[in-house]
Each structure stands twice: as C-alpha cells, then as structure tokens.
Description:
8% of the residues lie in helices and 65% in strands. A hairpin with a 5-residue loop joins strand 1 and strand 2. The longest helix has 19 residues, at 4-22. The chain has one helix at 4-22, and strands at 39-45, 51-53, 59-66, 69-82, 89-106, 112-136, 141-168, 171-196, 202-206, 211-216, 220-228. It has one domain (4-228): Porin. The protein is elongated, with a radius of gyration of 24 Å. The chain is mainly beta and 229 residues long. The protein has an eight-stranded antiparallel β-barrel.
Amino acid sequence: MKSVSSVMMSICLFLSLSATLMAGPAEQPTDARATEGPWALLFQVKNNFSLAAFQAGMLSVQRDLCGCAAMRFGAGVYGTSRDATGDGTTTDETRVSFTTTYLRYVSGEQDVRFFLGVGPEVGFDRVSALESRSVEGDTAIFYYERESEEHSWYVGCGMLVGAEWRLTPHISVTGEYSTSATYTSTELDRAERHRVDDGPWETDWESHPDTAGWSLGEMAVKLGLTVYL
Length: 229
C-alpha cells in the first residue's frame, strides 16, 4: 500500500511532464489521417495473437477530436457464478468498471505518433461465497456453513504514454505503458453457522473492519490494434 503523499507526487510528476510535452507543436494530420472516421474500436493483442477488449473490458472506443487529440472510453461488466463443486463451495462475482482517457499526440514521424494520456477510472466489485460441508458422527450428522460477502469500490486516475504506428488509413498498431493511482474502499462480512441433525442453526459472526487507502499500480505494457471506422 502506497502512502497518499507518494501517490500524489507521482501524479504531479506525470502531469508536469505531460504539460511540458503537450506545450510543443503537435503534428498536423497527414492526408492519410484526413480520411479517418471520428470513431475507432480498440482491441488488445494477447500473447497468442488473439484479440480482447482493450480498456476496462467489453467495450473500448476512441474518438478523434482533431489531428492532435482524442478521447478514449471504456466500459466493462463482468459476472461469474460457480456452483457447489466437490468442496461444497458456491461463488458469485460481479465487477463493473468505467474509464475515460484524454490523449494528446506529440511530434513524431509521418506514420508514427507518440501520445500521452490521463483520465479518471471508477469501478465496483462484489464477491459472495458460501461453503458448506457435513460430518457424519456415530450418533448425529453435523452441518457447517461459512458465508462471506465482500464489496469494494475504487476511484482513481489512469496515466499512460505510448506510440501509434499507422499501417493503413484505417488500421493502426499501438504500444503503451500505463499505470494508475486509485483509492479503494472494501467492506467484508463473514458468518459461520452450524447445527446438529435437523436442529436450529447457531451463528457466529466475524467482525472485519472496513479498509480504505491509496495505491499506485504497477507499470503495465499493452499492445493494441486500433480500427478506425
């Protein structure tokens, strides 16, 4: 867990660098770029060369504002449910995330443009689990259940730097480094229940204090494919 001062210092350093680079003359659109549509779809290229959503999952799009700037939008909704298996555990998870990034292109070659980006990130995650088992004794059957539910949400600022290589007027390959500073709050509720045969359930509650704080994510490397519409 990073301290608040370290996170804020990192953000200020990045924004200072961005402001310095963005102040320079941006490259004007070439004839090839003049044919670009205002919207583009973004895909991430994985290790096995398969394509996946680029930013936040599910839907990743970009809109050119001019020849020197663009906006990215990402939205993701993820849900999974695993029924009781051999260990008697059932798990449900729901995750929602949204990102917006302002990109500023800086001077580069005709077919290669360098860019910086910054923007807000928000998300929510819910995980619930139920573990159940039974033990058969000499004269009775003992039943045990353990139930937990965790809620967490985060807000933060994403930062990136990268380059775009134009292959055709409508297809580009991008490579970028990105990180984010986020504030996360987590709540955890957990309870254990047991009973003998068909008797009443007896519940033992576990108290877990809520946690919250700032963190600075690791630098991630991402290869992407941009398809202009």
